[in-house]
Design brief:
Blueprint lengths: L24 H5 L12 H8 L8 H9 L16 E5 L10 H12 L3 E5 L12 H12 L1
Parallel strand pairs: 1-2
Length: 142
Amino acid sequence: MASVTPLKTPPAFDQYGVLIDTPTPENNVFGNPEGIPANFTDFSLRHRTHDNSATLSKDMTQRVFIMNPMNFISEKATSVAPHWFIRHGAKDRDTSFLVPVNLATKLMNLGFDVNFFLPWNRPHSGDYNLDDLFAWIECINN
């Protein structure tokens, strides 16, 4: 039996003020134009502010919405690529399988062409066999 220690513990990306006092890169992404980091979940905001009734502002709720591509895949007004090549290392300890599985499933359910695979024993490296990628590109372009 093999095990890999995750890099982040819950609440994972929104740890600012919960497990650590310094913001994560994700807290900086959701921060404001002046570069001030921000929590992007009610849970972490409540923990950091010690206010159990605190909720995200409307501006932050909108920022969270637009940062999630899942909200736009089925939008009629958007243009979605017809073909998707998705790889996620089976030994990836940075991102849950749930992320690419949900993306691939939603795309497939909407009728998009999805080539999805979890390469065995691969970490969060991104090098998942470029020969397969190039062969796939050639196939969809012919």
